[in-house]
Structures are given as structure tokens and as C-alpha cells.
Design goal:
Keywords: Signal. It comes from Dokdonella ginsengisoli. This is Transporter. This protein is mainly β. It has a single domain, classed as Porin (Beta Barrel), CATH 2.40.160. The chain is built from one helix and 18 strands. It has a twelve-stranded antiparallel beta barrel. A four-stranded antiparallel beta sheet has the order 10-11-14-15, with no helix packed on it. A hairpin with a 4-residue loop joins β12 and β13. The longest helix is centred in the first third of the chain and has 16 residues. The mean pLDDT is 90.
């Protein structure tokens, strides 16, 4: 036996032992309907709900960054208006704990978004055609954002109306061991209108300020994977790249030596990854435990966000 043949046999024996390659060919593929998923932590589904069905998925999370904790909740409430069109509501709530005693005085309402998603194609295993959808979201300023006094932690909203356009793609692949890998690639672009602000605000203005803020546009690309360990258990991972424009603030301050104020803050690129574990009691009920990690950049501090979500379809 040659050295090459010996090496091949050793590698093949290792692959057979781990189950990545099976001795029996062809490997039996796991049927799509026998793998239950809740969805990864960050990437929404490209699919739509069947007509008359509803999805409710509340998230609880804690954004942990230097000297602050941002406790929050976000809930997806979606309804299948037709088989191809799903509409939804996304309410948010928050509580900020900030070093120095300037945190929230109470749990507050954040901005509210409505959305509509139109499915263009449906996944087909024979041709490899993925599910593709167009998503449109519109946020409305419901949370406090200015006139915060000595409690800047009571700022739970942006005050700006934001329109987000999204392109969602979802497909399935079979691993060499026959297990399913569900993938999502989502791209979105958010554009915000300017907003009038007074006094202390979420934009870093001080008491006596009068002016306007224009949040920068934000482009986000999200590549996500879900691997079906068993029918009930799955592993998930999100990889996210975010490019944000600078926020412009213009106005006058009655307490400043120079009355005119004009500056640009923030902006820049950031990267995040979010591993998660899913447990699904059925195809319509699942629990997700995840952790989003954002490394430190020049424009933003590092943060770690543990989260739990319950996915329910009725």
C-alpha cells in the first residue's frame, strides 16, 4: 500500500467515525418538513405566513456595554393577509441603566414599526430556487427622545420616521451527512427623516438647545445559518455587516458661548456575530437563546447582548 493510499484510508476512517461521511451511499437526506426551526437571532424569514395564520415572537434582551445596560423587548406580531403577503407590527420597550445615576426612571415605550412582506418565489429543492421576498418597514416615533432633563436614560426612541427597504433570501442545503442547513441572506437600507429637538436629547444635546437632528442612513447585510442537529434541536449563527452614515445636528444653544451648534456624530462600519441555540417543541413553537457580539470600533464601543425569544405560530 502506497503512502497516499494509507493517508486516504486514515482520513476516510475519521470522516466515517464523525458521521460527516456515511459508508452507505447515497446518504439519505433529511426531509425539509422534519426539521423544526425558530429562525436565527437577527435575520428575519424570507417566507410569508399562510393566509389567516399569525406569528407572535417576543424578544427579551440586555445590551451590555461599558458603563451601561440597555434592557429591552421587541415583539414581532405578523399576520398572513394572503399566502404571499404578510403584514405586521413591531412594538418595543426599554429600560436603561447608566453609570452616574442618569439612567431610566421607569420602563418606557420605544418606537413602533409596521411592516409588509411580499413573497416573490418559493423554495424548490429540485431547481434550487430560493424563497425571496421584499420587505418594507415604517417606524413611527412613539418613544421619548428629547426634553429629558436630568434623565437622558429615559430616551427610548429616535423621534424620526424611518423607512426601511429589505431584500430577503432563504434556502436549504444538505450537508454531507444528510442533515439540513437553512441559510438566509438579507439586505436592507434604512432612511430617516429629520426631527426637531429641544433641550437634553438622545442626540447628545444639552439643556437650552433648539434645533434639528438628521440620523444617517443605515445599510445592513446579514448572512445567517441554521443547522438541524435533531428534529427538535438546532444551532444558529448570524454574521452582520452594518454601514451607518453620520447623524447631523444643527441648532442654537442658549447656554453655549457660541450660540450656533452644528456637528456630525457617529457613522462608520461595524460587524456583529450572533450564535444561538434553538429548541423546538413543534413546527409552530420554539425557543431561542442567543448572544450578539459587536466588537469595538472607532465610532462605537463594544457590546454584548444576551437574548431569549419565543416563536409561536397560530
Amino acid at each position: 500500500m502506497t503512502p497516499a493510499e494509507t493517508t486516504f484510508r486514515v482520513v476516510l476512517s475519521c470522516l466515517l467515525a464523525t458521521g460527516v461521511v456515511s459508508a452507505a451511499e447515497p446518504v439519505e437526506r433529511q426531509p425539509v418538513d422534519e426539521a423544526w426551526f425558530t429562525g436565527p437571532m437577527l435575520a428575519p424569514s424570507a417566507g410569508t405566513l399562510p393566509r389567516g395564520h399569525m406569528l407572535v415572537e417576543p424578544y427579551l434582551y440586555d445590551v451590555v456595554s461599558p458603563h451601561s445596560d440597555g434592557f429591552g423587548s421587541l415583539t414581532y406580531v405578523n399576520y398572513g393577509l394572503t399566502d404571499r403577503l404578510t403584514v405586521g407590527l413591531i412594538p418595543t420597550f426599554g429600560y436603561n441603566r447608566i453609570g452616574g445615576g442618569a439612567g431610566s426612571s421607569h420602563v418606557g415605550v420605544g418606537d413602533v414599526s409596521v411592516q409588509a412582506q411580499w413573497r416573490l418565489t418559493q423554495f424548490d429543492a429540485d431547481s434550487g430556487l430560493p424563497t425571496m421576498s421584499i420587505n418594507v418597514q415604517q417606524s413611527f416615533p412613539a418613544g421619548r427622545f428629547d426634553r429629558l432633563g436630568r434623565r437622558p436614560g429615559n430616551g427610548f426612541g429616535s423621534g424620526a420616521r424611518t423607512t426601511t427597504l429589505g431584500w430577503y433570501v432563504q434556502s436549504y442545503f444538505w450537508m454531507p451527512n444528510g442533515r439540513l442547513l437553512r441559510t438566509r441572506f438579507n439586505f436592507s437600507h434604512a432612511y430617516s427623516r429629520s426631527v426637531g429637538i429641544e433641550d437634553v436629547s438622545v442626540y447628545g444635546t444639552a439643556q437650552g438647545f433648539r434645533g434639528r437632528a438628521k440620523p444617517g442612513s443605515v445599510s445592513t447585510a446579514n448572512l445567517a445559518f441554521e443547522y438541524s442537529l435533531t428534529r427538535n434541536w438546532a444551532l444558529a449563527l448570524d454574521l452582520v455587516h452594518r454601514q451607518a452614515g453620520r447623524t447631523h445636528v444643527v441648532g442654537r444653544s442658549s447656554t453655549s458661548a457660541t450660540a450656533d451648534v452644528e456637528r456630525s456624530d457617529g457613522g462608520g462600519a461595524s460587524f456583529a456575530f450572533a450564535p444561538a441555540v434553538e429548541y423546538n417543541w413543534s413546527a409552530s413553537l420554539g425557543l431561542l437563546l442567543g448572544l450578539r457580539v459587536i466588537p469595538r470600533t472607532r465610532s462605537a464601543p463594544a457590546s454584548v447582548t444576551p437574548a431569549v425569544a419565543l416563536n409561536m405560530v397560530f
